[in-house]
């Protein structure tokens, strides 16, 4: 990376205006100044739009990017797409919501992972560290297999309730155990084990083969069969949580040296923690109830994004969100096309790509820790 | 209210009491660091130095008593307001995050920045000044994880200075350092234009660099004054339970302590 300005004690006056690049001092996470951030964001957004447009065209029915554009335009009220109702339906009702939900899930999980890792000071933390995904599984299984709610309660609703119950249990447990960050992580692990066991128990004792298959697919994460309602709901939750997390970007930086150091820098640690834990748990619960527990995105993407932007959250969070979105759009495209007509659970593909990527990231950063 | 005339300046603790796990950690402690002075906080392990520093920083609330900043109760001030006035340096800062020296020093600007805002010119000026004062300007791009213990403490002090505090609280900042870095660090601290309270173990270093010394034992302040007034053979025998010879051989006739083997 650039070492040219390393000895520059004082940067050029022109480079120091509000909002422009901080002085570049050479290697280290600060090497990517705001100068680089604008192209990074614009590039990321363009890449995401292009990814969505292209990913929608991929599949058994042959569709072109202009087709996608005209269908989207038609549904937004600009003229007529001129495509047959079937092709229009494939684009607008099948592939579009699925691809968009992939983007939303990728962005949301990656952001949750970043926040958890910083807040809990644990590089292994991910959105599921609070037991939210396993609670969601139990909730879903209870609805699907045991028939709780008598069909009036959907799988998603059951998952959502299960996720929030699990999160409440983790909060209660960690508070009882002393409330330090390691207690939060341990409580999450305990809840995860408990709810996984409950899920297995229900599946083993009550489910038939068909139900087991459905539950398993959902446990591994799947975006098949999602519709616009999931997209709208998850996007709304993502938007709210993203705003909350971005508002806390500066505060998250303060946690680098621990809670006491954060408090000494003027952070209200207890309030910050509860706000961010609740926001990420809510977002994770919404995503998991729509698409199942898609693993590894929340663990790996934050590390990859950090390697790209450094650890300042003001830049890290948007970049992580964009990277997660693009990543999951393509992984889901792979998952639904590689073994066509059979579909692989997207969580399986994220793990198969994520593990080597994770090792690579850890290998590249090995000297620093 | 009680001290309309003299409560104006700086940090002051009165009748501070703190219990933890049924044990009395601080018992009626009062301390008033003179503005601009370097105050050494001495005492054996477990005498309450760290707890007192945490209470002075507002990180811990006293069970009884009051800490005031310019006459206002610390508890009534917002955390950010306090962080703009009082900076804290711990004995050992640990992070897993990959940060450069510049990143760490910039953390000191957090209490001065608003949510959503990018660091402004005043922030960058404060950071540059903190780096200059600690002699770290040339190391700004270096990774935290490649620094030695002494350099890390120096970076933490730079971070504290970037907060532009008027009070600086340091909890055994020289603990993990070799003697050269201990001397350098304390010389730097003593030279800073802020009121500093430094918990220390080494009596000779305290005598050399501190303007005032407060000695604690079992949660109480047992002595306070200039190094010459405080560091005596009687006090060392009383507080630490060891024999020592104290001579005025330090710089400017400050006390110099030589410990005697225990019988």
UniProtKB/TrEMBL annotation, chain A:
GO MF entry, a single one: transmembrane transporter activity
Family: Belongs to the binding-protein-dependent transport system permease family. FecCD subfamily.
Subcellular location: Cell membrane
Residues annotated as transmembrane: 38-59, 99-116, 128-148, 155-178, 184-204, 216-249, 274-304, 316-338, 344-363
GO cellular component: a single term: plasma membrane
Principal location: membrane
Official protein name in the record: FecCD-family membrane transport protein
Superkingdom in the source lineage: Bacteria
Species this protein is from: Streptomyces griseus subsp. griseus (strain JCM 4626 / CBS 651.72 / NBRC 13350 / KCC S-0626 / ISP 5235)
GO process terms (BP): siderophore-iron import into cell
Annotated keywords: Cell membrane, Membrane, Transmembrane, Transmembrane helix, Transport
Membrane topology reported for the UniProt record: Multi-pass membrane protein
InterPro entries in the record: ABC_BtuC-like (IPR037294), ABC_transptr_permease_BtuC (IPR000522)
Database matches in SUPFAM superfamilies: ABC transporter involved in vitamin B12 uptake, BtuC
Coiled-coil stretches: none
Lineage: Bacteria, Bacillati, Actinomycetota, Actinomycetes, Kitasatosporales
Region (Disordered), start-end ranges: 1-30
From TrEMBL, chain B:
Gene3D superfamilies: P-loop containing nucleotide triphosphate hydrolases
ATP-binding as UniProt keyword: yes
GO function term, MF aspect, one: ATP hydrolysis activity
Record's keyword annotation contains Nucleotide-binding: yes
Any Pfam family hit: ABC_tran
Keywords: ATP-binding, Nucleotide-binding, Transport
Residue span(s) of domain ABC transporter: 11-243
The protein's name: ABC transporter ATP-binding protein
Species of the source: Streptomyces griseus subsp. griseus (strain JCM 4626 / CBS 651.72 / NBRC 13350 / KCC S-0626 / ISP 5235)
């Amino acid at each position: 990376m650039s070492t040219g300005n390393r000895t520059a004690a004082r940067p050029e006056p022109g480079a120091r205006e509000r909002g422009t690049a901080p002085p570049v001092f050479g290697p280290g996470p600060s090497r990517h100044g705001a100068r680089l951030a604008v192209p990074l964001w614009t590039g990321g957004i363009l890449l995401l739009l292009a990814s969505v447009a292209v990913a929608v065209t991929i599949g058994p029915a042959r569709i072109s990017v202009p087709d996608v554009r005209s269908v989207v335009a038609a549904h937004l009220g600009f003229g007529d797409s001129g495509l047959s109702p079937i092709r229009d339906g494939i684009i607008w009702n099948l592939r579009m919501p699925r691809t968009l939900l992939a983007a939303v899930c990728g962005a949301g999980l990656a952001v949750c992972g970043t926040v958890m890792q910083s807040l809990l000071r644990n590089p292994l933390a991910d959105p599921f560290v609070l037991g939210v995904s396993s609670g969601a599984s139990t909730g879903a299984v209870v609805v699907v297999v045991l028939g709780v709610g008598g069909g009036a309660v959907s799988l998603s609703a059951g998952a959502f309730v299960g996720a929030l119950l699990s999160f409440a249990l983790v909060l209660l447990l960690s508070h009882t155990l002393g409330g330090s960050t390691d207690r939060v992580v341990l409580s999450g692990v305990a809840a995860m084990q408990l709810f996984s066991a409950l899920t297995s128990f229900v599946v083993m004792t009550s489910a038939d083969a068909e139900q087991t298959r459905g539950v398993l697919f959902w446990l591994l994460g799947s975006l098949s069969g999602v519709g616009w309602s999931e997209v709208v709901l998850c996007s709304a939750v993502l938007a709210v949580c993203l705003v909350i997390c971005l508002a806390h970007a500066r505060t998250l930086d303060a946690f680098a040296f621990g809670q006491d150091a954060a408090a000494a820098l003027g952070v209200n640690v207890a309030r910050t923690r509860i706000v961010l834990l609740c926001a990420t748990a809510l977002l994770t619960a919404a995503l998991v109830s729509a698409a199942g527990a898609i693993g590894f995105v929340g663990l790996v993407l934050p590390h990859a994004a950090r390697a790209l932007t450094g650890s300042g959250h003001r830049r890290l969070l948007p970049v992580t969100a964009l990277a997660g979105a693009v990543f999951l759009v393509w992984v889901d495209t792979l998952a639904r096309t590689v073994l066509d007509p059979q579909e692989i659970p997207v969580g399986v593909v994220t793990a198969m790509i994520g593990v080597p990527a994770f090792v690579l990231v850890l290998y590249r950063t090995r000297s620093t820790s | 209210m009680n001290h309309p005339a003299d409560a104006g300046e700086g940090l002051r603790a009165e009748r501070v009491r703190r219990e933890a796990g049924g044990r009395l950690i601080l018992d009626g402690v009062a301390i008033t660091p003179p503005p601009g002075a370097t105050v050494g906080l001495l005492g054996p392990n477990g005498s309450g130095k760290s707890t007192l520093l945490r209470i002075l920083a507002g990180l811990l609330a006293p069970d009884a008593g009051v800490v005031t900043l310019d006459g206002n109760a610390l508890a009534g001030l917002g955390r950010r307001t306090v962080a703009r006035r009082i900076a804290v340096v711990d004995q050992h800062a640990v992070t897993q995050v990959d940060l450069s020296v510049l990143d760490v020093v910039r953390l000191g600007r957090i209490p001065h920045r608003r949510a959503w805002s990018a660091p402004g010119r005043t922030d960058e000026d404060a950071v540059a000044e903190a780096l200059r004062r600690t002699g770290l300007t040339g190391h700004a791009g270096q990774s935290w994880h490649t620094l030695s213990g002494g350099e890390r403490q120096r970076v933490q002090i730079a971070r504290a200075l970037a907060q532009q505090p008027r009070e600086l609280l340091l909890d055994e900042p020289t603990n993990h350092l070799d003697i050269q870095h201990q001397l350098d660090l304390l010389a730097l601290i003593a030279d800073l234009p802020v009121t500093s309270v430094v918990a220390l173990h080494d009596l000779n270093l305290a005598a050399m660099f501190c303007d005032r010394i407060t000695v604690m034992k079992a949660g109480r302040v047992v002595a306070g004054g200039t190094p010459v007034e405080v560091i005596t053979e009687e006090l060392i025998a009383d507080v630490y339970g060891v024999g020592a010879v104290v001579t005025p051989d330090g710089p400017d006739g400050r006390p110099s302590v030589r410990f005697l083997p225990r019988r």
